[in-house]
Design brief:
The protein has about 900 residues and is an alpha+beta fold. It is built from 25 helices and 35 strands. The longest helix has about 40 residues, at about 675-720. The chain starts with a strand and ends with a helix.
Length: about 900
């Protein structure tokens, strides 16, 4: 538990009683009793409880409990710093004496602590620079100076290894001085120059070189000494100027280390100091060698001084040029005289005239951005107390332009420890800041993207990997960086990525390239790949960037859509209904095959034409009216008359659906047409048949009424001229006429219940007719039986059935009335067989009606009889073009032969 206690001066009394603790407060809020028991904690206070090892309802550790009692007893708030995990909190204890408890509030000051730590590191680095400068003056031996310097450098940077690599005449490097290395390597180990080592590559590039992990390093070879010592990371800078290179300063670690710009700046500063010391020591050694010969010594000394002076002037010129190139200026303030010196570059940074005097400190503060003035002033005041500072802040120039500066400053004390001078350097880092902001923005975009984004070296090694790539492929950055990109491809596509990278190297484009890739879990996914070249500052191709999008779901959706479209296209194209789509101007944009066949046009003739050209004139207003109804939300099907290409009418039942785009704008209509032409023709034919049927019925009724009228005339003839008419005779006459009318009525009844045309099932009719006669003429106790032999389903039309029915009525009623006087039993027989077909157009029938009664006198002439019934039978047989034969032996037998045309006689099965 890390706790730092800060005493608080008495403050104004504040309202400490809370009606309700803010559970959603992002900062820790707790309540603690006087005995140290935690009474309440919000969610943000849980890290503190975890650090103290307690929960709500438990007592705090004794040291915290004692602290709580001090706050309550003294009735003064107090503060302490508490480190909980990786976070640091400033915790304030406010007493509530009336409740014997303490309210605890915490504030996260982790970032402030990090900043303080950075300042401490800067202070230590400046102290090391001061110590190295001091030992340079104290040590006469250059080797001793280097040996001590590398120890100081390694300690401040917390690195296991540090070395100074001296450049040899042959271009190789000697390990001149070092710390942490095995003794047998220091002063003896030689490494290759150029790309054979980190030292060689640093000199070759003339820039600081940082290696986060040698496993991923491809710019140069890793010397054997680094492998022996297990070196993982390192940083290096050149020692010396462009024309006077002494060697390379290198620090190494056995752990991965992310070197900051501050670390590199420190190494450059040390390297610059070492280079100056080396030059001075070399000069001193040269002077020492010339000590034996004074003249020579003086001459050489003079020459050396001249060279030194020229070198100094050259160094000053180089320094001025370097300051200009790096936008770095320096300043010195003499505290005693209150005079300040600015370098030319500093004047350029502030856009001031170098002929003007350097501004005073107060005038300088006027340049500082208002939000940064207190920060800069406090840092500067700290130097008076011997505390150097290293800060960034903003300035506003006279023209209103805002710039960002990086400042390093320190104070110089005399031997009495009195500050006499402050000095420092100023660097314009405006462009760097803006670049860092842009880079950070781009980095945030890349990191937050759902697409897989990263880079691949020209050798096919994965060098960067964002969160989106982890989601797409399932590999974390640690798992995949340093591996070949082939692990992301299915086995049959191993060489594809290499070929794609080669295309980029050749200058070709790879944009939205769709292919397959392999996830960590073995799942194959569809992806869309974009590859782009990555160039360095000299426009040299150094890597390939990739953006990969997982399109698996899109591909599945496209496939389902394709299958669905194909399915519905097949349904539409094979539908029994015609389907037609028009746009918002009633122009046909689609028709299926059925619609084409229905109209008789080709597909080419139909597409692009207005729909009105296919609609009959009388139905165009109806179509327009229904379209308006549909736009109002009313939908119903209706019949429509279209015109085929051959001019024939096409009747269709239309169902339509309006089409709208995603914004609700009307786009057209999709209509489905059902061909009802045959139905309409059938309806028209049925209408015509019904009309003809009504005419036929009218005609039949008229004929039947004429028959009835004729029968009544015949009955009336019986009584013409007679004066002695008996009532029973009249009654009998009317009953006979009634039977004849009933026989005709039964025919119409059968027709009504029959198969729907003018054809009668004579077999059924005959049964009903005879049954009716038997009921009418039942003779007391006489048992008269009926024997019928009629072929089932014998069908006749009205022209045959009516006269044949009246004939049977007359003959059977005559037998019932006159054949069995004085008898108890009798039999009546009716036969109606088909004899044979006379031709394909007619059939011969024989009707036989007989009884076993008393019979008719043999001398009766049936063609010249005065009996009304026989007269009627003779007349009807003639109407049928038939033959009548009478036999009177053993009763009475009438045989009637007649021929029926095929159109008037059909069998029931044929009709069915």
């Amino acid at each position: 538990m890390n706790i730092a206690v800060k005493e608080e001066e008495p403050e104004e009394e504040v309202e400490t009683e809370m009606e309700q603790f803010p559970a959603t407060n992002p900062n820790p809020v707790l309540s603690v009793g006087k005995d140290g028991t935690v009474l309440y904690s919000n969610v943000a206070g849980e890290p503190l409880l975890h650090e103290w090892g307690v929960t709500v309802g438990e007592k705090l550790p004794s040291i915290i409990g004692f602290f709580v009692q001090r706050v309550i007893s003294g009735n003064n708030p107090k503060k302490m710093e508490v480190k909980a995990g990786k976070r640091v909190y400033l915790v304030t204890f406010h007493p509530l004496p009336e409740k014997d408890c303490v309210s605890v509030y915490g504030f996260d000051i982790s970032d402030q602590k990090k900043f303080e730590k950075k300042l401490i590191i800067k202070e230590k680095q400046n102290d090391i620079l001061y110590k190295i400068g001091k030992i340079a003056l104290e040590y006469e031996s250059l080797q001793a100076f280097m040996d001590e310097s590398v120890k100081l450098i390694a300690s401040i940077l917390e690195q296991e290894y540090c070395k100074i690599m001296e450049l040899m005449p042959d271009g190789k490097f000697l390990l001149k001085a070092g710390t942490g290395w095995k003794p047998e390597f220091v002063g003896k180990n030689v490494v290759e120059g150029g790309k054979g080592s980190q030292a060689g590559y640093t000199l070759l590039s003339r820039m600081p070189v940082i290696v986060d992990d040698f496993k991923e390093e491809y710019r140069f070879e890793k010397p054997e000494i680094l492998k022996i010592h297990g070196v993982v990371s390192g940083a290096s800078v050149v020692i010396g100027s462009m024309k006077k290179i002494y060697g390379v300063l290198i620090v190494n670690s056995t752990k991965k280390r992310m070197f900051t710009s501050d670390d590199i700046y420190f190494l450059n500063s040390v390297a610059f100091l070492i280079a100056q010391v080396v030059e001075r020591k070399k000069t001193e050694e040269a002077l020492k060698k010339a000590h034996d010969n004074l003249d020579e010594k003086v001459k050489e000394r003079t020459t050396q001084l001249e060279k030194t002076y020229n070198s100094l002037k050259e160094s000053e010129g180089r320094l001025a040029e370097a300051q200009k190139m790096a936008h770095i200026g320096n300043w010195v303030w003499d505290i005693a005289t209150d005079k300040e010196y600015w370098s030319n570059e500093l004047y350029r940074i502030f856009k001031r005239d170098p002929q003007e005097a350097a501004p005073s400190y107060k005038e300088y503060l006027n340049y500082v951005h208002p939000d940064d003035q207190d920060y800069v002033d406090n840092a500067f005041k700290g130097t008076i107390n011997g505390k150097p500072y290293d800060i960034d802040h903003r300035i506003i120039l006279a023209n209103g332009e805002e710039r960002t500066l990086h400042i390093q400053a320190e104070v110089v004390f005399n031997d009495k420890n009195i500050p006499i001078q402050t000095k420092g350097i100023v660097q314009d880092i405006t462009k760097r800041k803006k670049s860092e902001e842009k880079i950070q923005t781009l980095a945030n975009i890349v990191e937050s993207s759902n697409d897989a984004i990263g880079t691949i070296s020209l050798e096919g090694i994965i060098t960067s990997w964002n969160k989106g790539a982890e989601q797409v492929y399932g590999y974390s950055a640690e798992e995949v960086i340093g591996k070949t990109v082939s692990i992301l491809a299915p086995s049959h596509l191993d060489e594809e990525t290499k070929k794609l990278s080669e295309m980029i190297i050749k200058g070709e484009k790879v944009h939205r390239y769709e292919t397959l890739r392999l996830r960590k879990d073995g799942k194959i996914i569809d992806v869309s790949i974009n590859l782009s070249p990555v160039f360095d500052a000299s426009r040299k191709l150094t890597a390939v960037s990739f953006i990969v999008r997982d399109i698996t779901e899109r591909k599945r959706a496209e496939e389902k859509l394709r299958e669905s479209e194909e399915k519905y296209r097949n349904i539409v194209e094979t539908a029994n209904e015609g389907i037609l789509i028009t746009d918002n101007e009633a122009i046909i944009t689609y028709v299926n095959k059925k619609m084409v066949d229905m109209l008789g046009y080709t597909l080419k003739e139909g597409i692009g034409r207005p729909i009105w050209g296919f609609i009959s004139e009388e139905y165009k207003p109806i179509v327009k009216l229904n379209l308006e109804k549909r736009l109002q939300g009313l939908s119903e099907s209706y019949e429509l008359k279209l015109i085929r290409k051959d001019g024939a009418p096409l009747w269709a039942l239309i169902n339509a659906q309006l089409l709208f785009d995603k914004d609700g704008k009307y786009m057209g209509v999709m209509s489905m047409f059902t061909d009802i032409t045959k139905r309409k023709e059938a309806e028209e034919a049925l209408t015509n048949i019904e009309i003809a049927r009504k005419k036929e019925i009218h005609h039949r009724i008229k004929n039947n009424l004429q028959v009835i009228s004729s029968l009544l005339d015949l009955e009336a003839e019986k009584f013409k001229g007679r004066k002695d008419i008996i009532d029973s005779e009249v009654t009998e006459a009317f009953r006979e006429s009634q039977d004849r009318v009933i026989s005709m009525a039964l025919i119409h009844e059968e027709l009504h219940e029959g198969i729907g045309d003018n054809t009668l099932n004579f077999s059924l009719y005959l049964e009903k007719l005879v049954d009716n006669l038997f009921q009418t003429y039942r003779l007391g106790n006489v048992d008269i039986s009926l024997n019928m032999d009629v072929e089932n389903n014998t069908l006749f039309d009205m022209d045959t059935a009516v006269p044949l029915g009246i004939i049977v009525n007359e003959l059977v009623s005559n037998s019932l009335k006159h054949a069995f006087p004085g008898r108890n039993k009798g039999e009546i027989r009716i036969k109606l067989p088909k004899e044979e077909k006379e031709s394909d157009e007619s059939t011969r029938f024989t009707l036989n009606v007989s009884d076993n009664g008393v019979g008719i006198p043999e001398n009766i002439d049936i063609k010249n009889t005065d009996t009304l019934g026989l007269q009627l039978v003779t007349t009807l047989v003639d109407q049928l073009d038939g033959e009548l034969e009478l036999k009177s032996k053993n009763g009475t037998e009438f045989t009637i032969r007649f021929t029926v045309a095929e159109k008037n006689q059909l069998s029931a099965p044929a009709l069915q």
